[in-house]
Design brief:
The longest helix has 5 residues, at 101-105. The protein has a single domain, classed as Regulator of chromosome condensation 1/beta-lactamase-inhibitor protein II (Methylamine Dehydrogenase, Chain H). It is 3% helix and 40% strand. It contains 2 helices and 25 strands. By secondary structure, it is mainly β. The chain starts with 7 loop residues before the first strand and ends in a 9-residue tail after the last strand. A 4-stranded antiparallel beta sheet has the order 1-25-24-23, with no helix packed on it.
Length: 334
């Protein structure tokens, strides 16, 4: 029997949108996503009852969440193992919200083209190509001009304007083994990363080594755990590859993960902890894996970001945000 999950569906502008990033506390599964030896996963509710929303205390938003998620956005990034989200607004400024003050109060000034949140800090690519990082013990980014950036547990990688890769932070696995390009984008998770080359092939490096090596050419690729997924260049369909064990854990919190993606054609994909979501060519969302729900935010989208805590947030075609938090435990499908 699967444990029931609490579902919170939020359409913003509204400060309640931060529920999509709410962390309800829990145990460590030993996944490589966390910088402290495992991914922090929420504990399941006892006796099959629904898990109540955390309304205060450490790790909860309480009645006065930090930050403002109102307005029009062009992209959004959900935090990894933390209670935070950041997005690029229509005026190219960065807005962050959630319960982690370091993301909210240290946002650098300027205009940005992309933003990525990790477990401890965030980085954004400015419109002039330089990178700014902020948050808890954020490492100093390299100098130069970049086109994209991705943040993991305690390190980050970015693609330079010449297509080469630069990685910085605490992970020796990422810094010492970055492959040659040229690349167009990169996706980091913990001490592991995959980058999309100009020809559409994928190069991966870091630790631990994946169970399956991505094969084919793609227009979008995202690393999660235990699966990584991409949108095929040839026909727009999805392909997923196993990065770690998809079996059941001993504590029973996580169910077996089905990494088989849905059919249809897609424009982008985002993989998180135990589930992934993609934007179909008609703008609707489709999700698969363990931590999914039959309830999706209605509407059409330009992008979606999946977090580590069973939540997702997407930018609608009108620029507003819509987020869904499925809770945890049990399996399901979106």
């Amino acid at each position: 029997m699967h444990a029931e999950r609490s579902i919170y569906l939020v359409a913003v502008p509204s400060l309640l949108a931060v529920l999509a990033c709410s962390n309800q506390g829990g145990s460590s599964t030993g996944d490589p996503r966390s910088g402290q030896g495992g991914q922090s996963t929420p504990s399941s509710s006892a006796g099959g009852s629904q898990s109540p929303m955390n309304t205060g205390g450490a790790g909860g938003f309480g009645t006065n969440p930090i930050g403002d998620s109102s307005g029009s956005f062009t992209s959004v990034s959900m935090g990894s193992d933390r209670d935070a989200c950041c997005g690029i607004k229509a005026d190219q400024s960065i807005a962050c919200w959630g319960s982690v003050p370091s993301y909210q109060f240290l946002i650098p000034a300027g205009t940005f083209s992309s933003v990525s949140l990790g477990a401890l800090f965030a980085c954004g690519t400015r419109t002039d190509g330089t990178i700014a990082c902020w948050g808890y013990d954020a490492p100093t980014p390299p100098l130069g001009a970049f086109t994209s950036v991705s943040v993991g547990a305690s390190s980050a990688c970015a693609v330079r304007t010449d297509g080469s890769m630069a990685c910085w932070g605490d992970s020796t696995y990422l810094k010492s083994a970055a492959p040659g390009g040229p690349f167009t984008s990169v996706s980091v998770d913990g001490d592991f990363a995959c980058a999309l080359k100009i020809d559409g092939t994928v190069a991966c490096w870091g630790a631990p080594s994946p169970t399956e090596t991505p094969v084919g050419t793609f227009i979008s690729f995202s690393v999660g755990f235990p699966m990584m997924c991409g949108v095929k260049r040839s026909d727009g369909t999805l392909a997923c590859f196993v990065r770690g064990s998809t079996g059941c854990t001993q504590d029973g919190i996580r169910d077996c993960v089905d990494s088989t993606p849905p059919g249809g054609t897609f424009t982008s994909v985002s993989a998180g902890a135990y589930f992934a979501c993609g934007v179909r060519t008609d703008g609707t969302l489709a999700c698969w894996g363990m931590a999914t729900s039959s309830v999706l935010p209605e509407g059409t989208y330009t992008s979606v970001s999946v977090g580590n805590d069973d939540g997702l947030c997407g930018v609608r075609t009108d620029g507003t945000l819509a987020c869904s938090y499925t809770g945890h435990g049990g399996s399901g499908g979106m």
